[in-house]
Known about the structure:
CATH architecture of the largest domain: Orthogonal Bundle
Oligomer: single chain
Distance between the termini: 13 Å
Number of strands: 0
Shape: globular
Order of helices and strands: HHHHHHHHHHHHHH
CATH class of the largest domain: Mainly Alpha
Amino acid sequence: MKYxxxxxxxxxxxxxxxxLIVFALLSLAPGDPAAALAGNRATPESxxxxxxxxxxxxxxxxxxxxxxxxxxxxxxxxxxQFRQSxxxxxxxxxGTTLILVLFAFxxxxxxxxxxxxxxSLFRPSGWFVVVVAGIGIAVPTFVAALVLIQVxxxxxxxxxxxxxxxxxxxxxxxxxxxxxxxLALSWTxxxxxxxxxxxxxxxxxxxxxxALSRGVPPRTVFRKHVLRNASVPIVTxxxxxxxxxxxxxxxxxxxxGIGGIGSLLVKSVSAKDYDVVLAISLILVVAFVIATTLxxxxxxALDPRVRARRSS
Length: 312
């Protein structure tokens, strides 16, 4: 319990510090939201009036505290580009991105862990897993997206070229299949390599050899001794994978025309819509911290030595 509270406290501090850094960097970035809102023919006086109305002439820390207080209560400000509240703008897009990330994460767990376990279950397949994992890691996400669109959408016509965020859950999942595969490809290969290496290390352990020498069935040894101990690094990398998927969704959403928060972030950066950029950046930071914190807690739950060492 003490370890969990300490981890949660550290996560909150990380979120605050990271959000402050993002807020400061956006404030120092080139461009003036007031000038962009006023238009090309605006006078310096009108621009200054807009700056005062938006509170941009106040000190950085004062603006950050005001923004953070509003964000805690669900008020992320107004979008200069879409002329509506940021919360109402993000709500439907956040659901689309969440489905995409969870879909990709499910594919990673099934095929990444499955590929990693294959050499232990079928020895001659070791070279196959190494080759497939190497290719998966080497192919960038945007290249995988273009290849999938060309082959399965344009040539074969199995899936739509552009994904949609409309319709029921089944229809949305069908439209997000190719984007999820593109997003999951490199991470699946990485998880497969980690799983394969972790299982091989445990199979060479003395405790496994001792159990086999005592006549314990190989399947029982594999399930109770190999998989259980090998799951610690797999769970750890799963948390990092979830965090990486959230960031990688920006590329995939842009390639497939998905109306998620990733594609909205790209548009908002170009339009200098800082309130939207801040809100999405905060969501990404919170999601990253939550994913890594849950991974850390799961690691400690599987390995009590970690919990004891970090609690002392």
